[in-house]
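Running log. JK asked me to keep both predictions on one page so they can be read side by side. First protein, sequence followed by its tokens:
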Amino acid sequence: MKKSLLLGAFALLAAAACVTQGVAADWKPVDGILLSKFAKDVDPAQPLPEYPRPQMVRADWVNLNGLWDYAILPVGEKFEATQGEILVPFCAESALGGVGKTVGKENNLWYKKTFEIPKEWAGKSVLLNFGAVDWRCDVWLNDVKVGSHQGGYCPFTVDLTAALKPEGKQMLIVKVWDPTNDGVQAIGKQIKNPHGIWYTPVTGIWQTVWMEPVAKAHITKVRPVSDIDDMTVAVFVEAEDAEGATVAIGDKTAKVVSGKATITLDVKGQELWTPDNPKLYDFSVTLAKGGETVDKVDSYYANRKTSLGKTPDGITRMMLNNEFVFQHGPLDQGWWPDGLYTPPTDAGMRYDIEVLKSFGFNMLRKHIKVEPARYYYACDQLGMLVWQDMPSGDTAHYIRPSDPDAERSPESVSYYETELRQMFYSLDFFPCIVMWVPFNEGWGQFDTPRIVALCRTLDPTRLVDCTSGWSDRPCGDVHDMHNYPGPGMFPPEDNRATVLGEYGGLGLPVKGHSWKEDGNWGYVKFEDQNALFARYNALNRAMRPLITKGLSAAVYTQTTDVEIEVNGFMSYDREVIKFPVDKMRKSNEALRGPEMKTEIVIGCSRNEAKVWKYTFDKPADAWNAADFDDSAWKEGEGGFGTKGTPGAVVRTTWNGSDIWIRRAVELTADQIANPEDMLAYVYHDEDAEVYINGVKIAEFKGYQEYYYADVDVEALKSALKEGKNVVAVHCHQSTGGQYIDFGLVKEIPAK
């Protein structure tokens, strides 16, 4: 797409125009905090130099990122002296900001920056744009207050024109106050006392700060809305001080009325946007007033539709471009060890998405955080569907699954709805976003049907998930289950799709690449990458029949480790990818293909009892050999374990630490053919090892209810034979419920 070249050129222009940034050599990240693999690429003279608003590009701009003066002072105390320098746009608590201090509700965070206006901007209005500031901020230029804003996640603009000096240095002052979870505003995962799934506070500027010159009459927003059924794109344009002016896209024009104009483009013959073919189309919008062009912006659109529909089996599912595409991807928190909310570099931000694409994912759920515009632009370019969460807040009103909706205060409701509207207004441009998620797990959930209706009013073109997990209300477009480790699903409904909004959470700490070396946390933890992938692959196999039954989407927890959570595909510093890329892609892409059928090679006892020989006493070393004499062992029906073990079918009680079981089966030549297509079908609680004719073909760690698991194919090839085969299993239990059952199946590719 040629736009990427344009933005690269604009980034160079911004770099050339970048104002003096101070003595960059004096800056360094805060010591003792884990740094990402991209920290080394941070240039303190020009951090994040890329053009920050790819959906509405102007040629002329100046990036103000870099070293600013700062001070943290008690609320009410005047800002008279600085305490050092902070690297904008990294927050005060971050390592990359160079400060590494908690601010808290008792203090204000002050910023000071001097700059000069390019001479070429004379006679123009000058706009100061903030990507995001958490949370409440006031702005002064040359001792004149020029603006205020409240809300921690979305961009806002301040007009500097009236306060500018005719020439020379301009002095910018920004004051920020952020109560984190002492307030009722949206905070996402931030908390004063980070622990578990709650993370470090973020205070102050955390996205790019930049200036641009505009005419008094100028474009303020461009929003293309595609209609693939008619193959048209309606481009909605908003403009300031432009009544009666003319908006043009190519040879199509429209008059600005009440600050708005609409132009409809005929796009017949163009390609549809999909994750496999993320085709974007460029266009430019001009604004003319009094016969003269006063503004021009470059933008883009995609031909894409998100909706509900019924598949031929009569099941209501999520549709993309009127077709069912199983949406599968991670819960994506968007946190960084060194920048917290802010990625160290644009390349680092894109890297996360690129890794997910290499894994074969086509979707991510942006979890209670809003990203910079360039993030969604990257998703548009790379072909990544996005479910966008509204950041949660008002922690005093987090409800349990069985509770009614919370009753938040008028102030709390006002904060929520204001920031919800800000989020929709700033993100409704991006075609990658296919669903809005206003609530997560009852966190501040209130007045759910009304909020869903508000979401539909703000954007009738996308789906709405009334709440992801826990406290479902009979509204919205999907019924969303959270199930760890899962998978699982609710039954299909006539008017809503069924989705798995969170599952997985398989954890593997990586020494030397973790936020903390001890005290890490995951829903299920593993000791090596092979066991980790085996369990992940088993979850995917268990999901295949759910898709057939009606599951529309699944969200795995999660993209990266975050602080003490170690259940990421990557380590928190992005140095280590914990999963084999090629195997992940094969496993994930299989979910979007025809369902694989299986045939039983060696049956288990889940549905029909199988008789085994067994002993609780440690046998001789050759206990797993085909010719071992097990005549002294007891005989019993599988499975073996204790009553009450979840999902177990206990027919013979085993309540000690160890059990050894053996069983002889007759197999034909056809049954033993193609061992490379064979899988174990097993329930183990806990560690188990499996032998066939004395050859070890599989080993399983921990516990897992019935699932399909990989076996050692080469060992299986050497073990299986036509005629009599002896299966031998040892299972060891340490605590809690216990159970063992084993079978072997062969996958039959769908025709």
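And the second, directly underneath as requested:
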Amino acid sequence: MVIVGTPGGILIPELPRGRGAQGAGEEAAPGEGQRLRPNRPGRPSARAAVRSAPASRLRGLRLLHTHLSPEGLTEEDLMDLLFLRLDAIIALSVNPEGEPVRWQAATLAPEGPAAPGTAPCQVDEPRPWDRTTADFAARAADIEAALSALPAAPQSREADSPATAGRALLVSVAPEPRAVQEQRLNELAELARTAGLAVCGRIIQRVARPDPRSILGKGKLAELEVIALRENADILVFDGELSPAQVHNLADITERKVIDRTQLILDIFAQHAASRAGRLQVELAQLRYVLPRLAGRNRALDRLMGGVGGRGPGESRLETDRRKVRERMTRLNQELEKLRRRRGLARRGRRDIPQAALVGYTNAGKSTLLNTLTRSRVLAENRLFATLDPATRRLRVPGEREVVIADTVGFIRNLPRELMDAFRATLEELAAADFLVHVADASHPDLLQQIASVETILEELGLAAVPRVLALNKWDRLAEPAREELRAAFPGAIPISARTGDGLDALFRWLERELALKRALPPLRDELDEDAEEGAGAPEPASGPVFPLQ
């Protein structure tokens, strides 16, 4: 047997999936030669040329290589077995004269690694080179069956739906405790579901400092690969923001699509953008995100560059891409500036009418509250970021007074800076508001964290001094002990139910009082001093901000 190759890899024909071809009753001919380079954690490498069939997890390849020493399979060999998803890897040791001595084989172990930090492989004992009885095809079939039979992770309702965009494995690597990371992954799972992904598993690692090259260590990468194989995951979603180099390294190692939380949110915004203004803002945010990540792409021609300071085709292609992105961003900024002017004129046309804005965490019920208050039909769905474009309606409060109330895009923890910059025209609706109604989901387990995140964003937007009130929505879902705790924690908040309308009387009284204060007029009704227990049973809210948290 003659093996042709270089120190960087071996040249092999494109082998068909033998088991799949036999099952289909077809005979496939070998294709052109392809270079197969092992993907090793922490080392840049090319993608393996041979792809597995969609229904299989292994590649249908066995890698046989020689060791010019008496040692058998190394840890590096076992990692190649895992990340290349080979049926088997075999090392043949030879003596100084080049004569074969013994061989050793290994296959994947679906049940997991034998020891923490090691590759999940089943390693055979070394055998004499002339004892070659082994049925690797049967072993590969057993591995496929074992991977399919392992208990699957809890999946979302859309996991088996043909409309899903893929099967996602969620990953969290952070210094926070596991409980905190679990909560964040719950939110990430909701984001993935909103984007159309089926969540098929999750991995958590608590580290003081993540690996700068691939986030995860070698042992955790092996665990990730095993879970991805078992669950047939084709997308890895990381909670947090990855650097361009980390995305490249992870995609190269795992040969799966790798996205971070920011990119997932941008994808959701792109799906939900309905108006022209929304699409412009989303495109600008995506370009802001993509621009620094253009580095490292299209490097195939870099080696053709001239001497020192030479400019080759690879470099000029990258510069061309960057220039096109910047030119497009300039045009988008100009169009959004025109949009801001038009919205500014519209606001000036109604400046004699007080303006209020609904703010809050995404999916807290702002659109439902707007519909209930104004009897309108703004889109209100139980999903994250259902509303991207601001909607304004006129609301008549008791005392024959009017107020313009606006529903704005929802906030989220660690809102990407690209979105805040691109949605400046939309967020200006908040800057023009005379007072804010902070809508929070009282039934959410992360209520305190969501309230704190919204307050942080309002402060970053320079709106900390705007009078506002906290409206604890979905009050009807809480038991009485939970209600008592929230009343004690937020004595100035108004419990409401946007769905049933309970507690809206107290909200109307707060709006009426703010209108009276704005116009320097006394309240028109004595009901301002009445106990707010009528409706939702909460104390009368105080004017102005009701924060910080207690």
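Observation for JK regarding the second prediction: Residues 313-349 form the longest helix (37 residues).
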